[in-house]
């Protein structure tokens, strides 16, 4: 794997991806932040050696390099999921490549459903902790100890300092920011009423199909991480309506300006 990572990074370095400080992973329907970036280089995933290819129609599948808030960033426009048929090593491969390029911090966004019924769709949740329900670990492979500590401590997977700055920014900008626990499931089917009740019982405030594998690997690599969930639907098992994907994308778009404000202001302060 190390050879594959190095080959991917070298390919990108030859195309101008020079010493990025911060990596950003964009979730479903969350691409407007690119309008705030001075883009210097962009490469489709299917052109990068050893990279997976995004198969979800609303995930664009590009790696983008440029300047945001005075910092060099590398942005994943579109991510990979277990439900696309990839392994956890595939899903997290780009995080390892961004680390090889030089990032020290990782910012992650996703679209998720609100389990906590005090949270409403169109709002944002700062992830304070998570529950891994994807049935595996991206660190469970032979030779992982050569790339970092096998038994990674996850007592604080999300950086307290960056999260504190995010909360301060939200107050200053009058953004309604929740804080809670994100549960990551496999998907792609949405949850049943009983599953939503179960998620609430075990302590989840929001549920989605991504993010946790990338966070685990980021901690394995010693990267500081913060993550935001854009809440696109309300998961009330007693009043559950069929999911409308178009509505989910619309809700992501509604909340995205606040997410962009938080990330751009955070990067200024890092």
TrEMBL record:
Pathway: Purine metabolism; purine nucleoside salvage. It comes from the Bacteria. One of its GO terms (cellular component) is cytoplasm. It holds the Pfam family PNP_UDP_1. GO terms for molecular function: purine-nucleoside phosphorylase activity. Gene3D superfamilies: Nucleoside phosphorylase domain (3.40.50.1580). Its EC number is 2.4.2.1. Residues 22-268 form the Nucleoside phosphorylase domain. GO terms for biological process: nucleoside metabolic process. InterPro entries: Nucleoside_phosphorylase_d, Nucleoside_phosphorylase_sf, Pur_Nuc_Pase_Ino/Guo-sp, Purine_phosphorylase. Keywords: Glycosyltransferase, Transferase. The purine nucleoside phosphorylases catalyze the phosphorolytic breakdown of the N-glycosidic bond in the beta-(deoxy)ribonucleoside molecules, with the formation of the corresponding free purine bases and pentose-1-phosphate. Belongs to the PNP/MTAP phosphorylase family. PANTHER family: METHYLTHIOADENOSINE/PURINE NUCLEOSIDE PHOSPHORYLASE, PURINE NUCLEOSIDE PHOSPHORYLASE-RELATED. This is Purine nucleoside phosphorylase.
């Amino acid at each position: 794997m190390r050879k594959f990572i190095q080959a991917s990074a070298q390919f990108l370095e030859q195309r101008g991806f020079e010493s990025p400080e911060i990596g950003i992973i964009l979730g479903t329907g969350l691409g407007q932040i690119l309008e705030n970036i001075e883009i210097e280089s962009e490469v489709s995933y299917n052109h990068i050696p050893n990279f997976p290819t995004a198969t979800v129609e609303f995930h664009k599948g590009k790696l983008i390099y440029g300047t945001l808030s005075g910092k060099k960033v590398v942005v994943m426009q579109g991510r990979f999921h277990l439900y696309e048929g990839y392994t956890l090593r595939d899903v997290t491969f780009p995080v390892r490549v961004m680390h090889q390029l030089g990032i020290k911090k990782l910012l992650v966004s996703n679209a998720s459903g609100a389990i906590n019924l005090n949270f409403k769709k169109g709002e944002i949740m700062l992830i304070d902790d998570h529950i891994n329900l994807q049935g595996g670990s991206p660190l469970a492979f032979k030779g992982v100890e050569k790339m970092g500590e096998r038994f990674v401590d996850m007592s604080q997977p999300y950086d307290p300092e960056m999260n504190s700055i995010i909360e301060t920014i939200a107050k200053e900008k009058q953004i309604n920011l929740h804080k809670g626990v994100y549960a990551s499931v496999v998907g792609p089917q949405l949850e049943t009423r009983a599953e939503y009740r179960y998620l609430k019982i075990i302590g989840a405030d929001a549920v989605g199909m991504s993010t946790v594998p990338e966070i685990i690997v980021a901690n394995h690599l010693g990267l500081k991480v913060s993550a935001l969930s854009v809440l696109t639907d309300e998961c009330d098992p007693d009043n559950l309506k069929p999911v409308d994907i178009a509505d989910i994308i619309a809700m992501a778009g509604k909340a995205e300006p606040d997410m962009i404000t938080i990330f751009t202001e955070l990067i200024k302060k890092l």
